[in-house]
Structures are given as C-alpha cells and as structure tokens.
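Handout, section 3.2

Students often ask what a structure token actually looks like in practice. Rather than define it abstractly, here is a full record for Calcium-transporting ATPase. The first block is the sequence as you would receive it.
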Amino acid sequence: MSFLNGSSPHRNPAEDDIEAGPLSRHSSDVDDGDSSDPFDIARTKHASIDRLKRWRQAALVLNASRRFRYTLDLKKEEEKKQILRKIRAHAQAIRAAYLFKAAGGQRLEQGQGPVSGDTKPALTSTGEFPIGPEQLASISREHDTASLQQYGGVAGVSNLLKTDLEKGVNGDDADLLRRRNAFGSNNYPRKKGRSFMMFMWDACKDLTLVILMVAAAASLALGIKSEGIKEGWYDGGSIAFAVILVIVVTAISDYKQSLQFRDLNEEKRNIHLEVIRGGRRVEISIYDLVVGDVIPLNIGNQVPADGILITGHSLSIDESSMTGESKIVHKDSKDPFLMSGCKVADGSGTMLVTGVGINTEWGLLMASISEDTGEETPLQVRLNGVATFIGIVGLSVAVLVLIVLLARYFSGHTENANGTKQFVAGKTRVRDAVDGAIKIITVAVTIVVVAVPEGLPLAVTLTLAYSMRKMMADKALVRRLSACETMGSATTICSDKTGTLTMNKMTIVEVYAGGTKIDPPHQLESSPKLRSLLIEGVAQNTNGSVYVPEGGNDVEVSGSPTEKAILHWAIQVGMNFATARSESSIIHVFPFNSEKKRGGVAIQTADSDVHIHWKGAAEIVLACCTGYIDTNDQLMEMDEEKMTSFREAIENMAADSLRCVAIAYRSYEKEKVPNNEDLLAQWSLPDDELVLLAIVGIKDPCRPGVKESVQLCQKAGVKVKMVTGDNVKTAKAIAVECGILGSYADATERSVVEGKTFRALSDAEREEIADTILVMGRSSPNDKLLLVQALRRKGHVVAVTGDGTNDAPALHEADIGLAMGIQGTEVAKESSDIIILDDNFASVVKVVRWGRSVYANIQKFIQFQLTVNVAALVINVVAAVSSGEVPLNAVQLLWVNLIMDTLGALALATEPPTDHLMDRSPVGRREPLITNIMWRNLLIQAIYQVSVLLVLNFRGISILGLEHEQTEHATKEKNTLIFNAFVICQIFNEFNARKPDEFNIFKGVTKNYLFMGIIAFTVVLQVIIVEFLGKFTTTTRLNWKQWLISVAIGFIGWPLAVVGKLIPVPATPINNVFPKFRRTSKKKEPETSQ
C-alpha cells in the first residue's frame, strides 16, 4: 500500500521520517532515503548515476522515449564528458607546444641561432580593422605572449581594434555593427530543437498503441474480406483513428512543453553584464558583446568572452570550466589572457575583448556538445513508482480479462445478442474465430492502455513547465526543475538582509567625522585636510565609478548599492571623481573580502607619498585605529574614552537599523613597498596603526510588504531566519521591522547570535541551537554553510538566499539555493537552483506557493486518474467474468484514456496557486502522495460509478424500458448509455478533483481558461462521438431523456462529494495502518547510522 503512495514499502516508521520527527541524521541519510526502494530518492540534486539508473530499470514503462524525455540522458551525459575531455586535452596540447617553442626561443637568444619570431607578425585586414579574428584567436588560444608584445601589448591591440582602454568603444549602432561584421557576434550555433514530427514518432513508440495498430490492421483486413470495403472497414478503421487521435493530441501537448522549456533555457543563458562604452558603464546582454569592448571584472563574474587583461588587482581566475583542473590562476602582465566561461575567483580588473562567440574556446566547446537540460525530480521518481504499481495491477487485470474472455469464447459460452453462440468447434470459420480473438485481444490491450498511467509521471513535467513559465512573471527563474517542487516542502528559509528584506536603495543619513557628529552629513568645508583624505580614499578605494555627461547634469553613479551611497555622499562633500583619481595612482588593491569585512588600496600621491586607505565594517576597522583626525585637521591619539564614544555612536546607529561603515587611512614608507610585480601581488596591505577619517551610517529601508510576506511564511509553517554580514544590532533592528522578531524582547541569546559565536560551537551544539536562531549577524559565508548543514541534519528542508561568490557552497548544500538576479554574481547564480530576478523576499514567498501548487496539482490529477482507473477496470472485469462481454469497447476506452491522461493532466496540472495553499504546513518529502482525504474522495466516486454502471449493465434494458426492442439494438443502446454516463461522470468529477479538501469546487474556475476550454472540448467531442460517429465507436444515438439520465448520473457526483467531505478521515496515513507489514519490512532494513 505504501508503494502506491509513492514511498517505499521498506521504510522506517513515520516517526523516523525526515519531516515527521526530530531525528538527527547526516546529510547522506537525509538525501538518499532508504536504498532498498529504487523510487525513494528524496533529493535528486546530487543523486549518483547508479541511483538514477536503478529507478529507471525498476519502472514499468510502455514508451521509454516519452517517459524519460525530460530526465537526465545518462548516455549523452557520458558523451558530453568525453567531448569535454578531448577539447580540454587539445587546448592543453596547443599550450604545451607553445611553451616548448618559447623555451626553444630562449635557447636561441642565448647565442645558438637567430631568435624565432623576431619580426612582427603580418596583419590581415578585416574591413576597417587592421587585425583579423584569426590572429586575435591565435594569440588568445595559444596564450602567445611574444606575439602580443610584438603587437605592442594590450595598448597596441587596442589601437588596432580602435578602442580606448579608459573609455571603451564608441558604442553607437554603426560602430557595433562594423565590429560584428568584422569579428562575429557573441553567440554560437546551437543544435536545432526537436520538430513536431519527432514528437509524433515518439508518441507512436508506445507498445500498447503499436499492438492496437497491428490489431486494427488485422481487423481491417478480415473485415474487408468478409463484409466488403463499404461495411468491413469500420471496426479496424475506428481503432486506427482512435489511436491516431491519441498520438496527435499527445504529440501536441509534448511539443508545447518542449517550446516552453526551450524559451526558459534561452532565458537562463542570457547573462547581463557591465561594459564601458563611451566612458560610461552600461548594462548589456552577453549576446550584445563585441570585440574591442572594455569589461570591468569583479569577484564572482563570469568572463564573458576571450580577452586580454588591461589592469588587474590581485586578479585570480578559476579556469576549471575550461581546463578541468580546479586550480586558481593569478593573472597579471606576464599571463594576461582570459578565457570565456571562466570565473573571477578573487580581485578585480578590466579586460579587452579579443574574441567572441565561435572564435572563443568556450564557444567551440559549447557548439560541440548538445546541452541536455533534462533532470528527474523527486516527485517524478515517486510517480514512476506509483505508475509501476498501478501498471502491474492493471496488467494483471488485463491478462485475467484476456484469459476469461478467450476461455469463454472458445468454450462456446460467449453468445451474440440474438442468443446464438459466437464460436462452435468445427463449425465456425477460421476467419471468424481469428476476428473474434482479435477483438478480445484488442479489449485486453486497451485495458492495459487505460490501466497503466503512462501520463502520470509526465504530469509532473507538464505542471513544472507551466509553473516555470508563470514564475517568470513572478520574478523567479527556475534553473533546476526539482527545486520548483522541493520549495513546496521548505520548512526554513535563510534569507540575506540587504536587498532581499531591504530595498537595496542606500543613502548616508548620519556621519561621524573629525571626532564628532556632522550635521548635515556632507558639511566638511571647515576641515580641508580631512575632506581631501576622505575624497582620495573614497575615489580610489572603490569598485564603482562616476560618469559626468557633457553639461554636467544628472551624474551617473555605478557600483554596488553601498559603493553608490558612499560615492553620492562624497560628491556632495565636493569630490570630482575623475580629478581625484588622476591625482594619485594605485599601487596595490586588497579587494573587499566578506571574511575580513573590509577592503583596502595602496596609492601613490602626486608628492610621491604612499597612503593606504581602508573601508569596511565600522567596529572592525575602528579596532585597527590608533588615532583620528579632529575638526581642526589635527592628528589625535585614539584614547579609551574616544574609542568608547565611537563605539557608542556605532551602536546607536545600528539600533536605528543603519549599516555602519568606517573609512580610515595610514601613511606608509615608500621604501617598504615591494617594487617587484610578483612580490607586490603577494603583498599584504598593512592594516594596523590606522587613522580614522569617518564613520558613516547608511539607511537601507525595509521593502514594502516584506513584513506581510514573513508573516505569511510563518503562518504556513515556514521559519524565516535572517543571516547577514551586518552588525548584530542593525540586524536585530531590521528583524523587528520585518517581523522576523516579534519585538526586541524576543532577541534572546538563543534567537540572535553572532557568526563567530556560532562557528565556535561543536557540531552537536550547532544542531541544538539551529532551530531557535532567528537572526545571525556579522556572519561569514562559511557560517551560513554551517547553519544550513545543521538545519538539514535536524531534518529541515532548507532554502537559502545568496548573492556573493562565497555564498556558492551554502547555495549548493541547501535543498533550494536562491540566487539574487540583480546583485548576485554569476558564480552564485550557477550554484543556485532558482534565481530571484528582483531580489525581493516577497518573490521567494511566491516560489513557496508555486512549489506547493505543483504538489497539490499532481495530487488532484492522481485522484482524478485513479478514480477513472478503478471504475473502468472494475466495470470491464466484472462484466467480462460474468457475461463474457465488456460494455466499454476498445475505441471508447481509448477516448476515456485521452480524457483521463493528456486532457486531464492539462486541465488539473495547470491550476494556478491559491492562498489556501499557505494555510497548510509544508509538505513532507516522503509523505504519501495519496493522502487519506484523496483515498476517501476517489473511493466514494469510484464505488458510486461502478455501482450505477454495473446496475445499468445487468438491468439496464429493463430499467430503460428497452425490452420490446430488438435484443441487439437494445444492448447497443444500453452500452451507449453506460459509455456516455461514464464519460459525463468523469467531466463532473474533474470539478471535484480541483478542490479535494474544500466544499466550494467552483472557486476560481472561471479564471482558469484552460480548464474551462478542456471541459468544453470534451463535452462537444462526446456529443459528436455519440450522435454522429456511431459506426466508429459502436454506439447509437440517444434521445433527450437518455441524455438527461446520463447528466443526472454525473451530476450526483457533486452532492456525493460534498457529503463525502463531511466524513472524517484518520490523521495516520493509510499505509501506516498495517503495523505487521511495516514491522516485517523494518526487520529487513539495516540500522541507520546516527
């Protein structure tokens, strides 16, 4: 029974389940489930290939190409890995040959012959540019530093490409078009998607449909031979037509799904990045990149094209995507080549684009492999288990019906409507006997078609495709299918503060400078030295930029929200960004680090003095200060009293939910600065004996509606935890404002912790406290990872938001990784499962609703399909065993299968989410798919349908007053009424399935146009089938009274459903009611390691 519920019959009791109890487990236990059941994979995110192979081999499948279309293609995946290995080996061989050549050149230089490459390479003109794409590609692919130097280095190449290294390309349409024509666009040829005819061919591969087509052909041949072409083609032709209709409708549904997935995949690839064009930073699509563009690079960015480094500060690149080796490579003037597809691991810099699209190694690689976006989801795997169980039952029933009907037929117990025996040994012609046997086999095979719910696992793909498309409108881009449904099981959301709970629109509202509070915050005219040092530090120690258009109006500031706030403030203080940067030169940069919470820069002024500027978390930078500059521009010692006053100022600002940033500097002896590039790259900037210049308080207001979103999560049984790098007091104030903390009184030691305190605990202590933590301040990305691991070991299903490169491990470890679309780095996005396009917590809550909707829609479809399954099987089996005739023939059953399978899935699996979903607790990932409520609903409807239709089958002729008509016509009319009533019952029951646990089944129905359209289509086609296609379906026209009887039988299903919902059901799942069976299965299990 538990197998039917989509979970293992060899599982631990519910109290040991990951959602049902507080049992602590290791990650592997939580992920893998019980290995004895191939269909019990709770988490497919990192499932092994062997686990994926096991469930596929265990599944009962009639059409493998269709069933496994949207799962990971294991064969293609292996082929893809082999191609990647070949391309990487080829690239490494080219570089090895170049290094060998370079080494030979050095020997020649030492006096053993003429120097190789002594002459400047010949230029091949490409229209308006003196250098061609082949030469540029050759330099980049071979990492040919010698050729680069002969062209004049990066400056020489930029001249050949007509690019200004400071301002970038001109950027007008004519210039961009010239560059695309000369060097190509940043795209690569992709393999064409599958055509509609390929989907038709896949639908034809269904084993049962193939058997039916063979039977139809045989029936057609026998019919034409015995009755002539005019009358003899109906039996075989009608089956063939019904099969073709099933194939066409199936193919249309599958083709539409594939188009939706194709559009979503295109959206995933469309990365947006900043480039410098005409001296200003502009955001463009990766596809709009051209050769000659100048691109700023920061931690977490993807290198979008092949290029050469212009300037770099501690720039390190992760080239594992290209080389296959997880080695971080430092980039400088000695190794300035950057490969498309690699990630910035550390530091910052700017690059000149020299190759795009197919002219890059990444483009060649991507063009060589076919992207397989398929993946199985836990629900899909479980539904395959359900479908396999139902299929085995259905197959057994079909075999039983086949044996009974054949036995009755050949033993002479099957009679015609006029009472004559259909088969008499020695008298019946062989042709008639074969025709009779074919009809029996056709019925049995059609029962298999109805009984094996081939469309059940595919309904997951259908609802996910629909949900993913709709989620785009709700600002969520799904990267992994499984995440969409797993979000419905989320019990905890670990959210960032900045930009997710807050608006990410930062302004400086409070400033302490010169040892005192400045009001207004930009009033620093009385302290020229302090003002000058602040402007110098802000202008140079930043990843942002300021663009002043001609005329000087509407200054454009770019960078992170914090950088933009500080730059805006500095402009108000009197900073001219371009002038301030030109008055000093950068020696070395220590990029902002989320572990150290600060970033620094060493500069050389026009007077050749060396200044080191630091900026970062206020209390951390303040702790490094030994002095400060007062309002009279005098350097003062930082005594204990002054240190305390500054700390109080920080605490007061933090209590007002302000983010506090300190700006400090120190002078440094020029002689101590490394003068060698290699030593400079390793130089650790001094951060002691700093002089405090200012502490700024940055206001970042909470997002409108975030409090309501948090409360909605809490009502839905989802805990929201804030994990932030900000000061604990700032975090606490924002948490109260957002509703994560009810009040300041709720901020206890166990609910509000600091990152360093949490990481100092043991694993067991972290697990103990993880549930109670609501706010974690001053946390590092590793603290976030530790929290996720502790929560998952406690049995929680964890969703985590992240935007930085260092968030990648936590996003990867979490059940659902949510990356921020605006502030998120490419590294974070690639490690995530869903991208929140507007960085808004309200969108995270919408994803939870959609996740629950996926699960709820699948359950609606299961309830509807199983009702049809049970009713159709019981009616045909009872009739076959008792009378040797079945009331529902092959064509009728194929039509029922179409309503139940493809059309039913379209109608019910595409229901939009409702607020009612958030009134429930999270769905346990191993909770039975068929709940007690569903069992109650489907059994009531199935028993009612079976009872009424069997009464009609055995007593229908007398009930309908058909005794005086010819027996054959009366039987045909009775069977037509049974078929008509059965189909109409399913139409009425489709409404019941919409709301399994609500009384108002019509709520929101008029807004679901697809549902209404399918109901209308089914009704119209049913009328046409009964009234006009009788020869094909072996039906006869019904009068208006018989239509009313059919509708009345179907309508009774509505009040019956209302009465049924008043019947209470036990809270314990039905599969847990069999303790003996579960005890036996438990004995077979190995002990779970604790």
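Discussion prompt for tutorial groups: The CA atoms of residues 16 and 580 lie 65 Å apart. How would you have guessed this from the sequence alone?
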